[in-house]
TrEMBL record:
Belongs to the protein kinase superfamily. TKL Ser/Thr protein kinase family. This is Protein kinase domain-containing protein. ANK repeats lie at residues 45-77. PANTHER family: SERINE/THREONINE-PROTEIN KINASE TNNI3K-RELATED (PTHR44329), SERINE_THREONINE-PROTEIN KINASE CTR1-LIKE (PTHR44329:SF71). The keyword Thylakoid does not apply. Residues 132-312 form the Protein kinase domain. GO terms for molecular function: ATP binding; protein kinase activity. Keywords: ANK repeat, Transferase. It comes from the Eukaryota. Pfam families: Ank_2 (PF12796), PK_Tyr_Ser-Thr (PF07714).
Amino acid sequence: MAYETCDDFDMQRIGNFLSCASRGDRVGLNLMLRDGISPNVQDYDKRTALHLAASEGHASIVELLLHYKADVNLDDRWNRTPLTDARLYGHRDICRILEVNGGKDSVMNSPMTVVRDEDAKEVNIDISEIDSVNSEPIEQGVRGNSELVKWRGTWVVKTIIERQIELPVKMVLSANDNTQLRELRHPNILQFLGSIMHEGQMILITEHLPRGRLYDMLIQRAGLDLPLALRFALDIARGMNYLHHHKPYPIIHNNLDPKNLLQDEGGHLKIGEYWIQMLYELHPNQERTVNRHLVNKGRDVLLFGLILYQVT
């Protein structure tokens, strides 16, 4: 099923399916497969459930998908196969499973092209692909002005990042930053799709979650019952743990807020705006040191605590 032709319901169903594969939910994945979903559906970056399971090290999920005749050699947006991802993340058991089932490594079977960062295109989404017909303003996050638009037939969120005096914005994400952000996959972080530099504006494209912000829910309900609050707390903790354990450098949020915590169709929270730190210039003395990361991680923990206080 090509993502360009999917309606909103299909995209949400595909998102839930891929999320099950990413977090190793064999029961949920099996139910959807038995219900008839194709094991070869792809996300915005043409990544399949097999790509995600191979990247995250879920061998049982890989075996389940192969049992349902998943295509072992589909390429993603970067021409990588599931076997390429399994090798990249060091999952040797999964490499063996994929190889036995005919898996090919796209990197091993074709010459690698190394593109220097300064030569790479900073614009990874063409502005002409953004359809602003029937667009509307939307509240999503703390920084920038957002609106709902269509990209390749799918509703997404376009956010224009404004310059700020107290935090000089670089107004550009490097090719490395873009690649790093696009490749992040976790059920509790908002999917970053790409950036555009257009007429001097920094534009970010992210997935759209129609159920909105935790902030709005707190205003409407004036607090949450304990089971829901605990579930939300675990969602935030899992997402932050994933970001903090990113290699080679942790991704520090530093702006965690109920306004950038969004609810998906399954009722779980996703963390947005984790890319903010990449948009602002660092002082020359602010090197990426372990101590600075520890301090900023502590700030993330403090913000997390304040949000839990608001939730309960």
